[in-house]
Amino acid sequence: MKSALFPNKNEVTVTNQELPELSSNEALIKVHYAGICGSDVHVYQGHHATATYPRIPGHEFVGELVDFKGKMKTGIEKGDYVVAQPFFSCGTCQPCITGYDNVCEQLQILGIHVDGTFSEYVKVPIKKMYKVRKDIDLKLAAMAEPLAVAVHDVMTAKTQLGDKVLVSGGGPIGMLIAIVAKHTGANVTVSEVSEYRLNYAKDMGFDTVNPIDTSLVDYAKNVNNGSGFDTVFETSGVASAVLASTAAVKIRGSVVIIGVAKDNLPFSTNDTYSKELTILGVRVHSQYAFERAVSLLDSGALDEDLYKILDDKVYPLDQIKEALDYCINDTNHFKTLVSID
Fold it and tell me: What pTM was estimated for this model as a whole?
C-alpha cells in the first residue's frame, strides 16, 4: 500500500508498505481523506516528546470499511464510510478500567506511536469505529477527530446555555471549541494575535480581542457585569496567555488547559486559591465525546461553520512534503486535508 513515512525527524517520503495485519477485534479501513494536525507537524519536526520513528503519520481521517476480524458493531458493514477514535489503550490500567482510556498509562496514538492514516489503509479497534451517513461530504467527515477534541473540552468544562467563555488561541482547535461552545448556547470570545484569524473569527460571528492591544484582564472587566468569564479554554500554549487565563476567569470559574507547550508554563497559584478556580487538563477525547462529534456531523448542524475552517487546498498523498511545508509556512489557513484516493 502507498504510504507517507517519516523515516526520522525532518524526513518524509512516499513509499510502499505492507498492509496492516489485523488482530482480533480490529478493522481495516481504506482511507479517503486525512487531515493534517499540528501534532503531525510536531512529529515531522521532531518536537513531539513521545513519537517514535520510522512512522506513518496521521490520525484524522475518514474511509471505507473493507475488512475486520472479530465481531462487528451492530449497524456497520463492509463498504460503509467510517471514522474512528485514533488510539489504542491497554484496557487494564486504572484509567482504562474506570472509563478514562484516553489517558491510558500505555496510550498509543495513530501516527505518533503506531502507524497512522497518511496511507491507503489503516487498522483501528472495532470498538473505536463509527459509521457516518452515506451522503455525508467526506471532507467534513475527515474532521471528526478534531471536532471530538472540541466536544470533549466543552463537555469537560460543563459549558452551559448563556455562559460567557473565552477561547485563548484562534487556531483550528480553538475555532472548533468556539463553534461547539456556540452550539451549546454560550457567548464566545476568541483571543488571538493574528489579524487573519481575528478577522476570520469576527466573520464567523464571534466576539474577538487582540491581547496585544487590550489585556485580557481589562477585557474581562466588561464581561459578566465585571465578574469575568465563566470558562477560559487555553489552546495557545503561550506563557502570557496561561497567566492571563486565571486573571480573566470569574471567581469559582474554570480554566481548561488544552494547548501543548514546549516547556512547563507557570500559572497563578494565587488566583487559583483566592478565586477557588477549577483547573482542568484534557487529553485527546473520551469515546463518548467522539460518538457525540459523529452525531453532530451526521446531523449537519455544524456544516456551515465547519466549511468555513476547511481549507480549499487538498493535497494528494504524493505531495505530502508540500502539504506539510504549507502547514508550517502558511498560517493563514485552518484545516488542510490530504486525499488518499
Answer: 0.96
